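Consider the tokenized backbone below.
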């Protein structure tokens, strides 16, 4: 046989499109031609493949080799196609049985001695492979990641020779089995570490229960960062599909992630817009996507470049980010909770007439104006974090821990899912009309507040969503006037 076709997969954003590796051997001077929009790492594979085949005890054909990577208009990057190319050459040169690769897909980078090296994006590839009804053969180091999928056959090999022995049926590989169950470790960051600050703690609980965004504002050393870092520990646990969704993102980004935990991302204020959004010639996820189903914490918010902050506007509303390039568009998920912290002025002490502050009124205003009105309008809860008095810091009374707060959050979360199928923060205006009905007294309070606070339509709806979450935490089916009043207090504190 002089022709072979092997199936493998590329990685494009979070997707893993199918790639057909076609190998044709014909008469002529020894040469190897590769076509199909292959990038440098793929074009270099011919040298790795030649050495790997020879060092695995096989013959490299001394004829004219043509390798086509289809579809031709799909960019191919990385070295994950090495194994498929090598197998295609071996089948086309009659060193392996013709139909031995039926129902299988192959990924893996080859070393010169034939060893298989791990690749990125394994989980995305495994999900696409499972949907196609195929089995997957891959490097042993990637097997545990792919085996997270249920009812999916994964074969792990250490080198090219093992793969060939399996295809020859001389030494079959057993499907890879996960030896340990995935256990979610309890977070070491406990809310009990936070002394006092009852109002910010309450706001944190509301944000966790309803999926709301939150802004802490106060002088340095009051516990803003401490509070924000505890949010991920009081959020409800992720289900299996959500865990896979998060793990898939980190697999494509080639970053470590503890399976089963919610992401907590805290980029430095020198981060660029591309670092937040994602990008590159072959777009990779940015911090916004890496925080998907978790928390994005922006400390020292005004210190971020204004243009960087403005990129948050659209993802906060749509819960996804679209990266456009000349050739294609890619959509990354961005369903994150934004937690931000800021000082009231450049020196940090312009809080309730603090004598230490030497900033002028103009410099304070200029500092606070670094954050645009449209962005502030998209943040649901605005909380002042005051300095702690000495007696609260010295108090020995135990504060409420994360487990207790989390139980209440889960209860409110389940109420929302049972009632409307989504979190309160994701309710549309039509959904609010249906699920966030106000009594006449609450309506009157909200109407007055809208006039006095100059609430936009977006701000009005966000107050309603927060009020709905407060009612859920209080196990109330209806939104009472007290719930609306509390929601408004979180809105008007900084506006």
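A designed sequence for it:
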């Amino acid at each position: 046989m002089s022709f072979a076709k092997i199936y493998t997969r590329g990685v494009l954003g979070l997707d893993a499109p199918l790639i057909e590796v076609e190998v044709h051997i014909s008469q002529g001077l020894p040469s190897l031609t590769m076509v199909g929009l292959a990038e440098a790492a793929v074009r270099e594979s011919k040298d790795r493949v030649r050495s790997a085949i020879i060092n695995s005890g096989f013959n490299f054909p001394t004829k004219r080799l043509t390798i086509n990577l289809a579809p031709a208009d799909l960019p191919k990057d990385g070295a994950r196609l090495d194994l498929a190319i090598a197998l295609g050459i071996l089948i086309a040169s009659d060193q392996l049985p013709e139909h031995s690769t039926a129902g299988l897909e192959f990924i893996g980078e080859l070393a010169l001695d034939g060893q298989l090296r791990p690749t990125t994006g394994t989980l995305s590839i495994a999900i696409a492979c499972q949907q196609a009804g195929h089995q997957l053969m891959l490097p042993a180091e990637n097997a545990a990641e792919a085996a997270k999928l249920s009812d999916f056959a994964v074969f792990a090999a250490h080198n090219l020779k093992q793969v060939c022995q399996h295809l020859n049926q001389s030494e079959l590989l057993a499907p890879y089995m996960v030896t340990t169950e995935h256990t979610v470790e309890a977070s070491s960051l406990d809310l009990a570490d936070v002394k006092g600050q009852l109002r910010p703690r309450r706001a944190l609980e509301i944000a966790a229960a309803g999926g709301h965004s939150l802004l802490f504002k106060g002088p340095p050393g009051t516990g803003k960062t401490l509070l924000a870092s505890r949010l991920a520990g009081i959020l409800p646990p992720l289900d299996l599909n959500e865990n896979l969704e998060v793990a898939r993102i980190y697999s494509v980004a080639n970053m470590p992630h503890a399976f089963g935990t919610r992401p907590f991302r805290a980029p430095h204020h020198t981060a660029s817009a591309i670092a937040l959004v994602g990008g590159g010639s072959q777009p990779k996820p940015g911090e916004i996507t890496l925080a998907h189903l978790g928390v994005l914490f922006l400390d020292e918010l005004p210190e971020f470049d204004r243009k960087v902050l403005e990129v948050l506007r659209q993802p906060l509303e749509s819960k996804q980010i679209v990266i456009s390039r000349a050739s294609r568009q890619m959509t990354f998920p961005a369903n994150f909770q934004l937690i931000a912290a800021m000082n009231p002025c450049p020196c940090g002490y312009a809080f309730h007439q603090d004598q230490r502050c030497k900033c002028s009124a103009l410099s304070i205003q200029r500092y606070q104006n670094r954050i645009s009105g449209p962005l502030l309008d998209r943040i649901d809860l605005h909380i002042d974090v005051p300095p702690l008095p000495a007696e609260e810091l010295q108090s020995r009374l135990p504060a409420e821990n994360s487990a207790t707060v989390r139980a209440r959050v889960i209860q409110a979360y389940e109420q929302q899912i049972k009632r409307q199928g989504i979190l309160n923060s994701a309710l549309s205006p039509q959904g609010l009309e249906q699920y966030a009905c106000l009594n006449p007294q609450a309506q009157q309070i909200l109407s007055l507040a809208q006039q006095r606070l100059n609430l936009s339509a977006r701000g009005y709806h966000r107050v309603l969503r927060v009020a709905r979450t407060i009612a859920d935490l209080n196990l109330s089916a209806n939104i009472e006037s007290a719930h609306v009043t509390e929601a408004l207090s979180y809105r008007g504190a900084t506006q």
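The two ends are 75 Å apart (CA to CA).
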